[in-house]
UniProtKB/TrEMBL annotation:
Keyword Signal part of the UniProt annotation: yes
Organism the protein comes from: Snuella sedimenti
Annotated InterPro entries: SusD-like_2 (IPR041662), TPR-like_helical_dom_sf (IPR011990)
Pfam families: SusD-like_2
Signal peptide residues on this chain, from the entry's feature table: 1-24
Domain of life: Bacteria
Keyword annotations of the record: Lipoprotein, Signal
Protein name: SusD/RagB family nutrient-binding outer membrane lipoprotein
Regions that span the bilayer: none
Length: 496
C-alpha cells in the first residue's frame, strides 16, 4: 500500500508539472527551492510516463466517444500550441546525477528510456525541437533546434543502449528490485521488454522513412526480432505497461459512479462503432450496450446483444443538438455498463502487448523483416480480444472468417484497422497518431469540428517566440519554408 500511495502522489506531482510545460529552458536548471539531494527512486517515480484512463477527453480525438450534453460542443480539431517536456526532463537529469551520487547505475540506464520517450513525444507533436543544446540549458537558455531526424536517431540509440545496458545489469544483479516503480513492482525484466516494444513503436512511427540509411529502421528492427535473448519482448498482456483502477483516491478512472454526469454525457462514436459492425466484431458487445430503442423493441436481451444492428454511434461531425436528438430518441449506444460503470473499468495502458504484435505484423507485412506477419497479426488481435474480455473461441472464429490476415494494400489497411480497434479508450494519443500516419480510419469532419482536414501537428509554445526568437524562427523556415507555425504544416516524419 505504501508503494501505491507513493506512486499516486508522485504522479499527481508530475501531472501538475505538465501544466507549466510551456516554460522555457530554465526548467532544466537547478531549482534553488528544491532539495539538493533527492533519492533517485523518487525522481524515477516523478519522471515515469503516464497516460489517460478510458473516456478521458484525449479519446474523443480518435473518435471513440463523443459528448452529448447541451452545454458542450463537438470535437474541435483546431489545435493550438502545446508545451515542451523540459520540466520532466529536469527530473531525469537530476535522477542521473543522484544515481551517480549513491552508486545506483540502473537509474542512469532507465534515464535513457525516459529521455527517448519525452523527446519523441515532443518531436512527433511539434517537429524539430532543441535536444543537444537544450540538455546544456544551464549554460545555454536559447538553444538551437535539432532536426527531427537527428532527434529520432539519438532516441533510437538511447533505447538500444538502454536495452543492452539493462540486459548486462540484470545478468550481474539477478533479483534486483527497482525502487520507485509503480508499474511492475520493481521487475526490471518487464522494463526491458517495454523498452524494446517502445523502440518498435518509434520505428513504425517512422514508416515513411524506412529507406533512410542513417535511421536504419529495417536493420534496427531486424536486430530486435532476430535476437530475442538479447532483445526480449512482451509475450502476453501480463507484460503490459498499465495501471489498474480501484475505488481509492488517485486510482479511479475518469468514468466511474462518482462522476454521474459522465454517464449522461458520454456516448460512443459511429466512426468506431461502424468499423466493428462491418467486421461483426465481438468486441463491440464487450465495450458497448445496444441502443435503448433496440432493447425496447425486443424483450429477449441475448438476441438484442448478439445482433450487430442493435448498436449505433453518435456522429462526431454533427452538431451537439443533432446528437442529443438522436440520443433522446434511443438511437445511440452507451459504453457497456457492466464493464465500465464501476471503479475498475479497464486498465489504463501506456504500452501494450497487442500494440507490439500488430506493429511487428505491419513491419513484416511491409517486408522490413523476415518474420511471420500472420502470426503476429493473430497474436495482436487475440490479445486485444482478451483485453476486452472476449473468449478465445470467439477470437479464433473471428480470425478464421471475419478478419483473417490478408496480403497486399488491403491487408495493410486491415492491420491498421485492427490497431485502431485495439487502441479503444487506451494508450493515450497513439490512436490519433496512427490515423495521422496512415489515414486509417477516415475521421468524420465538418465545420462543426472547426477544420476542413485533420491537423498534423501543434504549434510551438509562445515562450519560444518570446525567449528564443532567432532559433525558433530559423526552425520554422528550415521545416516549412516560411515563418508559419500552425496545425497544417507537415513535419518531416510525415513527408514521403
Amino acid at each position: 500500500m505504501i508503494k501505491k500511495i507513493t506512486f499516486s502522489i508522485a504522479i499527481l506531482v508530475l501531472l501538475a508539472g505538465t501544466f507549466n510545460s510551456c516554460l522555457d529552458y530554465d526548467e532544466l536548471r537547478e531549482n534553488p527551492n528544491a532539495p539538493t539531494m533527492v533519492p533517485p527512486s523518487l525522481l524515477f517515480t516523478q519522471a515515469t510516463p503516464t497516460t489517460s484512463s478510458a473516456f478521458s477527453g484525449v479519446y474523443e480525438y480518435p473518435q471513440y466517444h463523443i459528448r452529448s450534453n447541451s452545454d458542450g460542443s463537438p470535437i474541435s480539431y483546431r489545435f493550438g500550441s502545446t508545451g515542451f517536456n523540459y520540466g520532466t526532463l529536469r527530473n531525469v537529469l537530476k535522477m542521473e546525477e543522484e544515481a551517480d551520487r549513491v552508486d545506483a547505475p540502473v537509474y542512469k540506464i532507465m534515464a535513457k528510456f525516459f529521455k527517448a520517450y519525452y523527446f519523441v513525444d515532443m518531436c512527433r507533436s511539434l517537429g524539430d525541437v532543441p535536444l543537444r543544446e537544450a540538455l546544456m540549458a544551464a549554460e545555454n537558455t536559447r538553444p538551437k533546434y535539432d532536426t527531427q531526424k537527428t532527434v529520432y536517431i539519438q532516441c533510437l540509440d538511447w533505447l538500444d543502449e538502454a536495452n543492452n545496458e539493462l540486459g548486462d545489469f540484470l545478468l550481474n544483479n539477478p533479483g534486483y528490485v527497482l525502487e520507485g516503480d509503480g508499474y511492475f513492482n520493481g521487475d526490471l525484466s518487464k522494463w526491458q521488454k517495454v523498452i524494446n516494444a517502445y523502440a518498435i513503436r518509434v520505428m513504425l512511427t517512422l514508416s515513411k522513412k524506412a529507406n533512410d540509411a542513417d535511421l536504419n529502421i529495417k536493420g534496427r528492427m531486424a536486430a530486435i526480432l532476430n535476437n530475442p535473448d538479447s532483445y526480449p519482448l512482451m509475450t502476453s498482456l501480463g507484460d503490459n505497461m498499465q495501471l489498474t483502477h480501484q475505488d481509492e483516491d488517485g486510482y479511479r478512472g475518469s468514468y466511474n459512479p462518482n462522476n454521474a454526469t459522465a454517464k449522461v454525457d458520454i456516448i460512443l462514436a459511429n466512426t468506431f462503432v461502424d468499423i466493428l459492425k462491418d467486421y461483426e466484431d465481438p468486441r463491440l458487445k464487450a465495450v458497448a450496450d445496444p441502443t435503448p430503442s433496440a432493447m425496447e423493441a425486443n424483450s429477449n436481451e441475448d438476441e438484442v446483444r448478439n445482433d450487430f444492428n442493435s448498436y449505433n454511434g453518435g456522429d462526431p461531425s454533427a452538431s451537439t443538438a443533432d446528437n442529443i436528438l438522436v440520443r433522446s430518441s434511443g438511437g445511440i449506444s452507451n459504453p457497456n455498463e457492466d464493464r465500465y460503470w464501476n471503479f475498475v473499468g479497464q486498465p489504463t495502458v501506456l504500452i501494450g502487448y497487442f500494440e507490439q504484435e500488430l506493429n511487428i505484423a505491419e513491419a513484416a507485412h511491409r517486408g522490413w523483416v523476415s518474420v511471420d506477419a500472420q502470426e503476429h497479426y493473430n497474436n495482436g488481435v487475440k490479445a486485444s480480444m482478451e483485453f476486452f474480455g472476449v473468449n478465445e473461441g470467439e477470437a479464433d472464429a473471428y480470425l478464421a472468417s471475419k478478419a483473417p490476415y490478408i496480403t497486399g494494400d488491403a491487408g495493410l489497411t486491415r492491420i491498421h484497422e485492427q490497431m485502431y480497434i485495439a487502441f479503444f479508450e487506451n494508450s493515450g494519443w497513439e490512436s490519433f497518431f496512427l490515423t495521422r500516419r496512415t489515414g486509417v480510419p477516415v475521421y468524420k469532419l465538418s465545420g462543426e469540428n472547426l477544420v476542413d482536414k485533420l491537423p498534423v501537428r501543434w504549434a510551438y509554445p509562445q515562450s519560444e517566440n518570446d525567449n528564443n526568437y532567432d532559433n525558433y524562427r530559423a526552425a520554422l523556415i528550415s521545416q516549412f519554408g516560411a515563418e508559419i507555425d500552425d496545425r497544417d504544416q507537415v513535419i518531416w516524419e510525415l513527408k514521403d
